[in-house]
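Why does residue order matter? Because the sequence determines the fold. Keep that principle in mind as you read this record.
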Amino acid sequence: MGDEANRTFTEENGGGKLPAMYVSNPKNVRYLCGFTGEDSSLILTGDAVLFITDSRYVEQAREELSDLIQIVCWNRSLLDETAEIIRKHHIQEIGFEGSYLSYSHGELFKSLAQIKTRITDGCVEAFRAVKDEDEICKTLEAVKIVDRTFMHILNFIRPGISEKQVATEMEYFMKCIGSEGTPFETLVVSGIRSAYPHGVASEKMIELGDMVILDFGATFQGYSSDMTRTIAVGKPDSRLSEIYDLVLEAELAGVDAICHGMKSKELDSMIRSPFVRENMNDRFNHGAGHSIGLDNHEAPYISYRSEDEFVENMIMTVEPGLYLPGLGGVRIEDDVLVRKEKSLVLTGSPKKDLIQLPFYE
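Structure:
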């Protein structure tokens, strides 16, 4: 990270000029300096970047970090070393990520620093929200993995295998084709369990007539994808087929409308419009979408409460769903690259019609 970017983080933080900032969230550390290990932090000042780690990660840091970043190996503890650096550099005020540190660690940090402190939650995340070309390319690779996995799992799902077996196969396949891991637990729910918006895979066996929701993601060089598809095994209840069409209408309304400058609550309203029309909005009981990047859930979020505006090169999910207790549910989700006019849907797995897998005796 160059001096200009460093000044941006230490000065433009929503609370006036700030001479230094302590960054401890591992995802923010990675974003700012490229380090992929753990148990490390950064101190940013107006003219220096100091990377604090322990002996396990010094060699890795030398390989991954710019020569402009000073590597400091701590001996006593990370916070003790941080306090010593603050004293050596005569820092009079410092910001820190209060929401990442526990209460006790936050109080310890303030006690050791013995200077004026300010919470700077969301400062780095605001920059992370807008992706550069390298970040977009990494996300596209993660998207390719989930698209390939969906086509693969269609040949695996059948009556008599469990939700857990499906989830395990999906995660194994994703790793085989290049995923570093899963950014969240792979969700597979079937039958009446598909009415659980975020139910985890269980030992339940998939049965003929079940709707099956598959919500899964891959990670490529730290960046996440997140996609949901709902399929049927055999012919489902006619009410669920109708629900599928309604959810698809809502999802398409969202991915077609999202663009640079649109407010979050405006998009939320457009997504919910088909549900409101059919008096089913009360069956949509989770957020309509979120940003993705180094974290699977990042700001901004699609919400009727939010005044946030989408900006070109944000990558958002759009994920409406409807859930009927005792019967089943439907969710459809895509990853979308925000553009000034027509945004680009990154995920390409089929969804136009409800996929009904054949049942073989």
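The chain has ten helices and 19 strands.
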